[in-house]
Write a sequence for this structure.
């Protein structure tokens, strides 16, 4: 086992990594990813055990405070998780996995293809997976497989979605086509964030969809929000064709599908 602060040790044979973001005063860097004001770069996790905790206002995996999950200020990078056991904890307005607080550039992308992934925010108001609080650029989140548990943060400043945007953040594009996904919105004094969708006082609407070629089991504690009033259709090959679950003109408080 290696414990790292401010850098990442890569073991080609798997093993365990503990990464903790540092801080300068009240501002922090991601556990794995960017420093304050920096981009998160391209991050790929194939196996092993990873436990990443962000510094103040930073993501566990992704962007630091005032930083995105992109590879450069104007070009989106990627966070890809193909396997392993991954735990990512964001702080304050940062996300568990995604962008840091107040990201004003590209939100980047998060793709989960497999593994056991737990993403959460402690003592904050960012999303479990997605964009940080106050962000003006949303993150593209795609889940194709694995077991994913995402929990947004909530406090006196607002609440983040389980998967989607943090409080006062930009909406995200969320596509779930496989895996077992549980998304729980945070709860604070300004209300609760959606399980999948927007946090409180969101700057813009995001979108949610599922693919026809996948087979996902989804639990959204706090509902699936979509302020555009569009209709969400969930597909499952195990069923006889697509099944309509209703209009999203009003956020759904719960949704379970297999």
């Amino acid at each position: 086992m290696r414990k790292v602060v401010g850098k990442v040790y890569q073991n080609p044979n798997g093993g365990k990594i503990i990464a903790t973001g540092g801080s300068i005063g009240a501002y922090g860097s991601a556990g794995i990813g960017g420093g304050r004001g920096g981009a998160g770069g391209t991050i790929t996790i194939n196996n092993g055990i990873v436990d990443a905790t962000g510094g103040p206002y930073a993501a566990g995996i992704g962007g630091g405070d005032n930083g995105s999950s992109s590879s450069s200020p104007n070009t989106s990078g990627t966070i890809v998780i193909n396997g392993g056991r991954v735990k990512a904890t964001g702080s304050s307005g940062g996300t568990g996995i995604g962008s840091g607080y107040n990201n004003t550039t590209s939100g980047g992308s998060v793709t989960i293809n497999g593994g056991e992934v737990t993403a959460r925010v402690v003592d904050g108001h960012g999303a479990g997976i997605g964009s940080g609080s106050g962000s003006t650029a949303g993150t593209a989140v795609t889940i194709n497989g694995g077991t994913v548990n995402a929990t947004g943060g909530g406090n006196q400043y607002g609440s983040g979605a389980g998967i989607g945007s943090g409080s006062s953040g930009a909406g995200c594009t969320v596509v779930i086509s496989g895996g077992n996904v549980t998304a729980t919105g945070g709860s604070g004094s300004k209300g609760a964030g959606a399980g999948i969708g927007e946090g409180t006082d969101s700057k813009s609407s995001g979108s949610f969809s599922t693919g026809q070629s996948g087979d996902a089991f989804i639990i959204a504690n706090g509902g699936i929000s979509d302020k555009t009033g569009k209709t969400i259709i969930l597909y499952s090959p195990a069923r006889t064709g697509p099944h309509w679950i209703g209009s999203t003109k009003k956020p759904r408080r719960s949704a379970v599908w297999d």
Confidence is low (pLDDT under 50) at residues 1-9, 73-77, 228-258. The radius of gyration is 16 Å. The first strand starts at residue 2 and ends at 5. DSSP finds no helices and 29 strands in the chain.
